[in-house]
Amino acid sequence: MALAPVELWPASASAYAREIDRLIWSYTGLILFLAVPIIACLVVFAIRYRRGSDADRSNPPVHGLRLELAWTGLPFLATLVFYFWAADLYSRQWVPPKDTLDIAIVAEQWMFKAEHPGGQREIDELHVPAGRPVRLVMTSQDVIHSFYLPALRLKQDVLPGRYTTLWFEADTPGTYALRCAEYCGSEHSAMGGRFVVLSPKDYAAWLATFSVDRTLAQEGEALFRRLGCSGCHGARSVARAPSLAGISGKPQPLADGSIVIADEQYVRDSILQPKRQVVAGFAPIMPSFEGQIGEEDLVRLVAYVKSLADASAEAAPPGAAVEPPR
């Protein structure tokens, strides 16, 4: 598939991208405002006071407190405004809202594979609805990649063995470029595709074009049972193992006395390195599945565990106390 072209200054497809543009152009204007007078003075003084000129060099000023304070303090205060502006943009980008549409991204040489919650899959394309927050949960099967959406002014490294996240809210339907922005091998320049923003109605119609039998979480449930995980972690299991219902996103006490949040990374690590973070009150007897399942299967298992949190919340009657997982 041919890559979508990247323009010198790509069109913006979100309010965040437009604010980034305002920050860049405003800061560029400040730099020009500060630099042009200095350059002009350098040129004028170089000509006026060149060797052999008849300029009056008697009684030159050697100190000017007001001038020194002005050329030091005013630029500092002006750039400080941009520091807080950029810091605010950065901090907002790392705090996603709670109602995001989570899409899994698995990178490999040389493609990006996207898996939607309903089980729909695409390669080198990412379709999202306009006006809805989207969170990408990304990992790599081989080397470091970088998921880059020029139209959103966003880029995030995609790392092997880790989950990284990126969230956005696109608001302008259209087709934009998708790129890998980290050199990842001989075919790096051809790695990428299309980022497609659809209206909510068109996005629903696009999802309906896929023939899927099971959602991502349902596929994870089937894998969960096939691997024998339900024998210990299932609701009716006789083995004494930590319950998985309701743990997603919640604090999890560990045997060493520390507490971790049961996010996607914790679930992934617990599958591949179960003895690394043992739940308090349980023995480190779970076998490792490292080398037995790939990243796409891990994505499905993580989606299933996250769905158990939703199921536990729905099952509990209003006002009822839910017993914390052990």
From TrEMBL:
Keywords: Copper, Electron transport, Heme, Iron, Membrane, Metal-binding, Respiratory chain, Translocase, Transmembrane, Transmembrane helix, Transport. It is an enzyme of class 7 (translocase). Its EC number is 7.1.1.9. PROSITE patterns: COX2, COX2_CUA, CYTC. It is found in: Membrane. Residues 98-209 form the Cytochrome oxidase subunit II copper A binding domain. Signal peptide: none annotated. It comes from the Bacteria. SUPFAM superfamilies: Cupredoxins (SSF49503), Cytochrome c (SSF46626), Cytochrome c oxidase subunit II-like, transmembrane region (SSF81464). InterPro entries: CcO_II, CcO_II-like_C, Copper_CuA, Cupredoxin, Cyt_c-like_dom, Cyt_c-like_dom_sf, Cyt_c_oxidase_su2, Cyt_c_oxidase_su2_TM_sf. Residues 215-309 form the Cytochrome c domain. It holds the Pfam family COX2. Its main location: membrane. It catalyses: 4 Fe(II)-[cytochrome c] + O2 + 8 H(+)(in) = 4 Fe(III)-[cytochrome c] + 2 H2O + 4 H(+)(out). It is a multi-pass membrane protein. The chain crosses the membrane at residues 24-47, 67-86. Subunits I and II form the functional core of the enzyme complex. Electrons originating in cytochrome c are transferred via heme a and Cu(A) to the binuclear center formed by heme a3 and Cu(B). Belongs to the cytochrome c oxidase subunit 2 family. This is cytochrome-c oxidase.
